[in-house]
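dude i think i finally got it to work??
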Amino acid sequence: LLNFIEIVPPLNASLVSSPISGKSVLFTGTLESMPRNTAQDLVRSRGGKVASGISHDLGYLVVGKQLWSEYNSGHLASGKLKKFNEARSKGAPIQIMPEDDFFKLIQSENI
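look at this
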């Protein structure tokens, strides 16, 4: 029987194991690591979706370094951060993280 069966690996195995596969990602603030469109392409290449705003279905909110330090000091200068806090208070399971942590997360994948 094995003579007649060809085992084919998935087209992109990294999409299966990616922590962002099937999840939506939203960027806010100025990214220092790379241009925003490059970061968005990276998300798509890992099977994620790029979101345009805060919603209950958002998987990750990635915050630029400067805005992250303001957020940690309790200052919500960004409309997205305000909407994030509102969504979280209503039970939205959105993960928030600084850009460095997010890029470490997706770069640590075995690709």
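The first strand starts at residue 24 and ends at 28.
im so relieved honestly
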